[in-house]
């Protein structure tokens, strides 16, 4: 298990045990990192991931707090997963991505220049080397943004970038909750990159569709 995931689990245990109460403030970063036995960088990654799913709330200049959680949510944070099921808007965002992103990826296969492909490969490799779900999601966001920009259609790229953040929390949850989601994401990025490097627009588009639809399907099954 990655060190960041250890930090996430230990913070969760503190909430469940009552050591951290809903609405309560976390100890100073240096003190909490020592208490959990992790580095401050790993703790920051854990806080960032838990903030994305609203378990923690970072208040600039004040500190980090536990969100106001219902008791059943504290058991396994299932309430946040149910929130996605109850609010269909995030599925609407994925639906639009599923339509537009394969088209952008197909365009990028014919329009990305060699320096652009090299930069995309470096980003994919950085994502594969990520040591936490939050880190991988950041690389995932950049990977897709670079492909959208590679379509050389600034309007299409801008629309896709605007859709990225509303779906980022679902990506984090999938990484935390679904077995092998981390490896699947890395492998699917590699497959998309391979098609782009081969200048195969049809294959690149199909692989992008499979990648986006996989997260959407997981979310629907909740």
UniProtKB/TrEMBL annotation:
GO molecular function, one term: DNA-binding transcription factor activity
Pfam families (UniProt xref): FCD, GntR
SUPFAM superfamilies membership: GntR ligand-binding domain-like, Winged helix' DNA-binding domain
Residue ranges annotated for the HTH gntR-type domain, each copy included: 1-69
Gene3D superfamilies: GntR ligand-binding domain-like, Winged helix-like DNA-binding domain superfamily/Winged helix DNA-binding domain
Keyword Chloroplast on entry: no
Keywords: DNA-binding, Transcription, Transcription regulation
PANTHER family assigned to the protein according to its UniProt record, in alphabetical order: TRANSCRIPTIONAL REGULATOR, GNTR FAMILY, UXU OPERON TRANSCRIPTIONAL REGULATOR
Protein name: FadR family transcriptional regulator
Taxonomic source organism: Nakamurella antarctica
């Amino acid at each position: 298990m990655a060190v960041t995931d250890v930090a996430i689990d230990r913070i969760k245990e503190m909430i469940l045990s009552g050591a951290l109460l809903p609405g309560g403030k976390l100890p100073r970063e240096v003190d909490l990192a020592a208490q959990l036995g992790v580095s401050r960088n790993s703790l920051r990654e854990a806080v960032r991931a838990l903030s994305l799913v609203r378990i923690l709330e970072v208040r600039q200049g004040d500190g980090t707090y536990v969100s106001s959680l219902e008791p059943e949510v504290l058991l396994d944070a299932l309430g946040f997963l149910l929130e996605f099921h109850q609010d269909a808007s995030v599925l609407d965002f994925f639906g639009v991505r599923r339509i537009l992103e394969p088209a952008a990826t197909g365009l990028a296969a014919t329009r990305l220049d060699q320096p652009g492909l090299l930069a995309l490969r470096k980003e994919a490799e950085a994502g594969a080397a990520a040591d936490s779900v939050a880190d991988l999601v950041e690389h995932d966001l950049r990977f897709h943004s670079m492909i959208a920009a590679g379509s050389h259609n600034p309007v299409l790229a801008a629309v896709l970038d605007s859709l990225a953040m509303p779906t980022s929390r679902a990506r984090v949850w999938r990484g935390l909750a679904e077995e092998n989601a981390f490896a699947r994401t890395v492998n699917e990025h590699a497959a998309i990159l391979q098609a782009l490097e081969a200048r195969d627009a049809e294959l690149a588009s199909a692989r992008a569709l499979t990648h986006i639809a996989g997260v959407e399907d997981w979310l629907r099954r909740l």
